């Protein structure tokens, strides 16, 4: 059983490290704040969660100890990282940070325009 658990531990840690490297590359290479927050929130969440799952499996199989703090950490990262990325992107948009020149569409501008037209038709 330890061979299978060792393989799972190594697999989760390597997948987590891979997504963490992808996050770092995305933060350096992507052109605007919106793309960067997307890379930071999505792939970093997956990377950290995989590393924490690998750590949980290690403690469970090798040490015989179920660490509830790691489980809480997994759920905390799962909930807060995407929400934080969304709030940072929304704050940047409301502050007037421009999209990348080659961005195809601005869905939030369309939504705001629709809401203004909807409010204007009420009165």
Characterize the structure shown.
Belongs to the CPA3 antiporters (TC 2.A.63) subunit G family. It comes from Jeotgalibacillus proteolyticus. By secondary structure, the protein is mainly alpha-helical. It has one domain. Helix content is 83%, strand content 0%. The protein is built from 4 helices and no strands. It has helices spanning 2-29, 33-63, 68-94, 107-122. The termini are far apart.
Features:
elongated, sodium:proton antiporter activity, single chain, 123 residues, mainly alpha, PhaG_MnhG_YufB
Number of helices: 4
N-to-C SSE string, H for helix and E for strand = HHHH
Overall 3D shape: elongated
Helix content: over 70%
**Head-to-tail CA distance between termini:** 70 Å
- The tally of domains stands at 1
Total E-strand runs? 0
Protein name: Na+/H+ antiporter subunit G
Membrane topology: Multi-pass membrane protein
Keywords: Antiport, Membrane, Transmembrane, Transmembrane helix, Transport
Subcellular location: Membrane
């Amino acid at each position: 059983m330890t061979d299978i658990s060792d393989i799972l531990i190594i697999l989760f840690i390597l997948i987590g490290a891979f997504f963490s490297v992808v996050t770092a590359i995305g933060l350096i290479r992507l052109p605007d704040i919106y793309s960067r927050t997307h890379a930071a929130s999505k792939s970093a969440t997956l990377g950290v969660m995989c590393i924490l799952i690998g750590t949980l499996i290690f403690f469970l199989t090798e040490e015989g100890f179920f660490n509830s703090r790691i489980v809480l950490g997994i759920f905390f990262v799962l909930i807060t990282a995407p929400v934080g990325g969304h709030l940072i992107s929304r704050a940047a948009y409301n502050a007037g940070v421009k999209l990348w020149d080659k961005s195809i569409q601005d869905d939030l501008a369309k939504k705001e325009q629709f809401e203004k037209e909807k409010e204007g038709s009420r009165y």
